[in-house]
Structures are given as structure tokens and as C-alpha cells.
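Hi,

Apologies if this is the wrong queue. I'm a grad student, and the batch job for Reverse transcriptase domain-containing protein from Hucho hucho produced an output file that my downstream script rejects. I'm not sure whether the problem is my script or the file. Here is the sequence I used:
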Amino acid sequence: MQKTVYPSNLTPVDHPLNRSVTIEEIKSHLKKTKNKAPGEDNIDSTLIKQAPDEYLHLLSNLFTTCLMEGYFPLPWKSAVVTMIHKPGKDPYNVTSYRPISLLSHVGKLFERVLTQRLSSHAEEMGLLGIHQAGFRKARSTTDNILRLSEDILRNFKKKEHTLAVFFDIEKAFDKMWHNGLCYRLADSNLQIPLSIRNIITSFLHNRTIKVKVSTAISSPFTPEAGVPQGAVLSPLLFLLYISDIYYPPPTIGQVSQFADDLCYWTSSKCPKLAAKKLQKSIEEIETWSNMWRVKLNPQKTQCVLFTRSTRKNKKPIDLKLYGEAIKVEKEAKFLGVTFQKNMNWTSHIANIEREGRKRLNHLKTLCGRKCGASPQTVLKVYISYIRSLFEYALPAWITASPRQMNHLQRIQNLAIKMAYRLPKYISNHHVHSISGLASISSRQSIIGQRFMNRATRNPSLRKAVGQARWTTDTPMSIMLKLS
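Support response: The file is valid. Your script probably expects a header line. Output copied below for reference.
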């Protein structure tokens, strides 16, 4: 993407990030605001949505002043954290609770204005990594899962092995270095005006958190690191913080990145040579992580040698992170998809089937013969609650065999019969004609076509789309035939 370069003689007022906030801009962001619990000020988002234009005019003046002064007001930085107990966990263990941070809705509305402007600026300037798919428009986890799947299967065609390392970053969002982010934003190449940098500095510092358990509230304390939980601006700040993470040259290896989920891989006909190339990339990311205080966990980092060969390697894979050996596994989970060394998707589909049948039992509670929900309601729940499992990142594992996909089709058959209270011996063809639902194989075709229409506009996938025309039996080539 070509970078936008703003004239050097722009005054702070002229800079696009500093333009005045309009009522129309506030209204557009209010439409996207969900009705959630309010913060300490008890101002609910529904009240702001129903407010007259006079009130929104005051808000626009307030937001514009904050932009010009580079100030994020203190009341918007006070969070009340409610602890939600995780089902089945020890209630006397602190880690058994999920913290939910409640912030001022007025402050979050201002964050939406900042996030929209800063995100557009970052995309225009090319500040975020090309392989970074987290929290970006027209990007998804499927993009990066597919890139890895496509590359491995293409390497199989060339009779090459693919060695991949799946990194685990310890509490990436909770331990982000505040001063490090402020230093990075001051880089002249980013062309972020001083007022916006001051707002971000003000946004990060002097925040207070109170923990609420039942009716008891703790004394306020100030976090010294990390981005605020529940804040609209936090994900984008994290992406900017890690935007210069090491990307190896294409001749050495490839990268897939979704926020803090990171995978490096390389290929070679010789596993030892692949390990040697990958170790260089690991050493580079070690240097980067030490400089920016990002901690990689060697114990949870894994590597997998993807190969179709059944012969055992005479020399085991020897990769090290911070001097500790990285575990070599037969499979690894990346962004919710289980990758096996031979890429046959057996484990991934087994996991989906297990979870799908568990959710199918929940669906039974809606299907009472006398007072149950209507068939249309049950099917809507099935589509959103169960079928969504089958379709997550489907373009990446569309190479699964029809026999494997039939395991998921059986669950759909049972769900439809359950919705219409039909006996199990009714033919599946008749069941689908009644419900109007497409079969799992038909959904594969539909999703594949949709993905290919979007993939051509994605810079990180454009090259893979072009290469798919000359390959066979890879996800891209299969979807290209479908489209």
C-alpha cells in the first residue's frame, strides 16, 4: 500500500487527526455503541443515544477541545472491575474469576472518535504489518490460518517439509510498556501530531481501578503497564506497539500474526536446514522482545514439522528460545484450528464434532413436544450456536475429505429432526427439503466463493490467490474452482 505523506507545513489544526468533531461523527459512532453497564458516572449509552442535538453539540465541543489540548479527562479513566466466576472453577482461587472492566460511556464515545481517526491514519500510512490481521477492517483470523495451511500444502506438492513455530506471548496486553509506546509514537515517520500523542500519554497514565466483589469495593490503585481492559482504543494501541516486530524476508520464512498470536514457518527439503533458517528468525524476535519488554514463554511455545514422510528424522529438531529447547509436537492449535503434522484435519474435526454434540444436547431443551420452541426458532439457534462452529475458518481446512465432513453433516441432520420432532429413520434428503437448510458440502462452496471474492482485495493474500491458479489440492485452488 502506498503511504500518504502529509505536507510538512501543516499546522496542528490542519492535520486530519485534529479536525473538529462534528455531531454527525458522534451520531455515527453512537449507532455502533452497544448497550452495556455504565461506569462510575452511571451515564448509560441509551441516554446518550436519546439525547437532543444540543447535548451532542456540547459533546462535540468537549471532544474537540480535548483533541486540541491533548488531554484525556480523569473521570473517563476510572474503571470499576467486576469479577465474574468461571463455571466449574475453584471459587477460592483468584484465577477462577474473569475481570469485566466498566468505563464511562462518554469516555468510550470519545475513544471511538480517536480510534476511527487513528486507525484510518495507520492504514493510509501503512503503519501496521502486512500480515497483521487483528482488529483491522476486512481482515480476520481466517486470513492467517489460510496462509499457513496453503503454504504447507503447496510445499507438500514440492516434496518439501514445513517447520513452524507457534509463539506464546505472556500477558501481552496486560504488560505493554507505556513509555515504550509513547516513544514509538514519537517517530517522525508515523506523522502523528503532538496533540494526539499527548492524548494517548494522558489516556495511559494516572488511570485508577477499583475491584468490586458483591457489594464490597476495593481502594483505587494505578496500573503501571498494559492497555486498559474494556477500552475501545486499547487494541489499536497494542497493534501500533508491536508494529515493527521482526518479519523475516520471504526467502527465509513466512509470518502469520493476529494481535499477539504469532507463527513463523519456513520450508526445505531438509528438516535440518529448515531448523537452521528458523532459528535465525527466533533469535531476531528474541532481540526485538528484549528491547520492547515483550516476554515470550518458552514453555508454551511449540513447533511442528509438517511432512508427509513416514520416516523418522535421524537428528531431532533443535530450536531454542532464550536458551530453552522448544517442544516439538505432532500437532498445534493456532487461532482455534488444530494443525496436524500430516495436515489431514482429523483432530480438528474431532474437536468440532465433540463440541457440536455437546451443544446439540443444549438444543434439546428447546425442543419439548408440548411446549417447545417453533422449528424456525430452533433452526436459528442451531445456525448461530452450532453451525457457526463448523464454518469457523472453513476456507483453511476446506481440503478435508467428504468422509470427514460427513461427521458434521450427521450433527446437522440430528438438529433438523430435533427441530421438527421427526423420527430418526426419516431420510436426510427429505429433512433438508423441509427445513430449507443447505448441506454442509453446499455451505463449503458458498463460503469458499465468498472468501475468494474478498481475498483478492487483501494484500497479504493476493500473491497466494495468483499462485493458486497453478496448483492443485490446496485450499486456494479448490475455492478458485468453486468461484
